[in-house]
Design goal:
single chain; 2 domains; about 5% strand
Amino acid sequence: MSRPDDRTAHEPSAPHRFAWRPVAIVAGATGLVLLALSGRYGYHRDELYFLACGRHLAWGYPDQPPLVPFLARLMSGIDAHSLVLLRLPSDLAVAGTCVLTAVIARELGAGRRGQLLAAVAIAISNITLGSGHLLSTTTFGLTAWAAFFAVALHALRTGDGRWWLVAGVIVGIGLLDNDLLVLLVASVVVGLLVVGPRRVLLSPWLWAGAVVALALWTPYLLWQAHHGWPQLDISRAIAQGSSGTSAPRWQIPLQQFYLASPPLDPVWIAGLLALWRSPALRWCRAFGVGYAVLVVAVMVTGGKPYYLALAFPLLLAAGAQPAVDWVRRVPGRLRTWTIVLAVAAAIDALITLPLVPLGSLHSTPIVAVNYDAGETVGWPAFAAQMDSALHEAGPDAVLVASNYGEAGAVQRYFPQDAGRVYAVHNAYWLWGPPPSTADSVVAVGFDPARLLPYFGSVTLEKRLDNHHGVDDDEQQASVRMCRVRKAPWPVIWNRLKTYG
């Protein structure tokens, strides 16, 4: 009887030529579309937060590593008012993800048409469009995962261990964007242990790559350790549903069907089955097992559904050639499926990209389907109303926001008042409370029950209105005037602390 390592060491076939021209056209066109639309609507609350973090550059923050805040600082340093420039790195990352997904397909044996389909599939998927037109950790996470898959598969296919060192660099850089790469790497290691080839785990190049990755990640780990590992508190809060994109554990695998796109679901499912069952892909079966491990890990830890969707570059690439072969078996099937994909791409773009006129957005179901669309609406109006209340409260008053979007909006649109703006949310909380002299407070987004223990007077002044009728998280948020502070700020600050 053959050993597992012998079976999984099945010699892979030589790859086809890479379809550079059509893949480059898909990648370039996708990037250009995102660039053309990047100035519509407005900032996402997370982008306002990234800008604030960029003004407080550090090796870490309670909820993220430093890469995206650094990019926000870099882009805003060139032009502080350009939303298009702020999102340019994301547009480039999406184009890179398209190319890398085609590269993965080639490593898995896809021909030119399979490579092209892989690039198209990731380009029109909801996870790519939904995150790719924003400056987002998800956008760069998708690129980092795709790069890891491409390099790790190449190392496994060719047996050239030097590529594991490259994979280590990719993982190290990716971990400065998002911690989720730890789950991916761990799941692949489990896959190698279960189905092999286990000899890869003895490669000195792999261990050298691990050392490089850890070295790149170490400054962030030291920051987290120094601040008491706040990322763990954030993760627990997300698991309890504190984020607007959180979901019950049982929904996590089901939402993958939407995060790809319904017409693409057969493609990534075929890819997963191929990784599990295809004799031609026996050499990389560890990645199929790794995905199953990843599903369990994300569900057990209560992560967000999009965490799993970061694996779509691999799954869509693995299913691309089987999908092409299926289409070519029946005359006319190619035309039908092309039309279906085109219609799906148009619908996905309508839902995930800022195509609907802002004045009509409230009359559509888009915000109900795509939470992030609502998060890009109304910040100039919200900021103006909050800043107005701050000035009405007097020159010694401060504004304390319940979340980083509110605080970030005022600081972005009214930088002259940035020093009077505070928030109890994530990194804003860490940056500290108002000065001890601040007794008059404009509190935004708080339930009065949270404020009354600390102030003798709490009165409702107004409610925020985005003037577009869009029912987003800030619409009708309260603006309250708080006076007669009854406790020291450090005490109030510790009790109002919000991680999530």
